Amino acid sequence: MKIGILGAGRMGRGLAELLGKAGHEVVVGSRMPGRSSFPAVSLNHAITRSEVVFIALPHTAIEPNAELLATVTPDTVVVDLANGVRVEDGRIRSVLERPHGRWVADLLPQARVVRAFTHVPDELLVSRAVRQPNTWAIAVAADDAGALAIVSELVRSAGYVPVPVGDLNHSAVLDPGGPLFPNMYLPGDMCDLLDRQGA
């Protein structure tokens, strides 16, 4: 597939490496492509040439780029992996009062938003996939069954096992403060944890 990854940080670069090795045509978009140490194009170029767009930008960069993000064509699959993190009383929490995936879907009503790759520590993304392929779980949430299927296949392409966890209204389990964040699980362990949480 033609994939655009918005954000040239560790998660964006890691996904580009994994999905590129799997045979997908991947470009990485940066807010400052000329200053990136990784080959990158503009965010606009990454959006306009892609069938699937990954938002790997910092949470704080999403609203300032909302007008640009709104140019994604109708029915484009948009994968939200950004996290708005705050620390309260020594605990990780989300900066939002609603699930991050629902927040992005409300910003981009024309898109088919999927929440995935949010609970993976960035320093483990590539190493776990390369050293132990098809072993570790990635939780995936979406309202659209077709978009969920597309992203689940991309999760497999990246070397992980997709575990659907419900729609975007129930995707807070992937967010900061949720039971999955910021850890990695085997598929069975993830399902057991979510069952115990009643998620």
Automatic annotation (TrEMBL):
Q: Which residues form the Pyrroline-5-carboxylate reductase catalytic N-terminal domain?
A: 2-84
GO MF annotations for this entry? oxidoreductase activity
What range does the record give for the signal peptide?
none
Q: Which InterPro entries match?
A: NAD(P)-bd_dom_sf, P5C_Rdtase_cat_N, STEAP_metalloreductase
Keywords attached to this Swiss-Prot or TrEMBL record, sorted alphabetically, are: Oxidoreductase
State whether keyword Hydrolase applies: no
The lineage's top-level taxon is Bacteria
**PANTHER family referenced in this protein's UniProt entry, alphabetically:** DUDULIN-RELATED (PTHR14239), REDUCTASE (PTHR14239:SF10)
* Name of the molecule in the record: Pyrroline-5-carboxylate reductase catalytic N-terminal domain-containing protein
